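Sequence only, no structure available. Ideas?
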Amino acid sequence: MIVFDHVAKRYNDGTVAVHDLSLRIEDGEIVVLVGPSGCGKTTSLKMINRLVEPSSGTITIDGKDTRSYDVDVLRRSIGYVIQQVGLFPHLTVAENVATVPRLAGWSRQRIPERVDELLDLVGLPAAQYGRRLPAELSGGERQRVGVARALGVDPPVLLMDEPFGAIDPIARDRLQDELLRLQRVVRKTIVFVTHDIEEAIKLGDRVALMQLGGVLAQYATPAELLAHPASEFVSNFLGEGRLVRRLGLIRLGDVPLARLDGSAPPQLRISVDASLRDALDAVLRSPDGRVGIERGGEVVGMVDVESIRRAAAQ
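Reply:
I predicted one. Tokens follow.
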């Protein structure tokens, strides 16, 4: 667990980067720091591994003040992934991934085993990618190597500072999906910085929306954030599409479904695991404005615009 307790960062010229930040990040969750440029999200991230030192307040990891750690030990115990990856260009993929275990003094036998394990985990098998240089990889592949390197000594905490910001939209979407897949396997505590609210909503178990001056505007689950913005700033940052985004977070299986009541089954059908947003898209394409909901090949209910509206309002 990571706890920010009234943390602030002020510079000598009087600039306040972060103002009185208090929040709790539970073990094994992804918390996304999001907001406009200059709102203090990257500064907040860097204070966790002391790349930036707080001016006041405390940050604890599992109850221990980060200032009580030797700074090198602290940083080696926390994975760190940045936008430009920072791979060593003259080292192979395998050598890059081996960097942190080697610094941590792992044995020569253990390191190659760990490298192979991590490259398989991120979908870059060592037999195919291990001997390549970073210049031989695509941007998305380099980011995967960066994640593998950050996981080198199995750190409990992973910091990610706009890691997908320089990637094209299609590759970015795939990397987001890959991160969610990895999280289901490794269950790290991940603090993720982005300026993109869509990315925050997709990835975050909770979202910390910050505003200029380093002020925490709202800290909530994506569903709560979209349904109940805490201020005009939050509402404006989320934009006019916030209700549609919220539909994407609600599964059909989690809401009451309309019964068929003896009427003919709708022509168009989707899975009960689909979202309300998927259902709305299907309803708009349906010839009769209805969509059947399937579970195990059986139609268990239906939705139309009105039932979607009622479910979204709950």
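Residues 169-186 form the longest helix (18 residues).
Hope that gets you unstuck.
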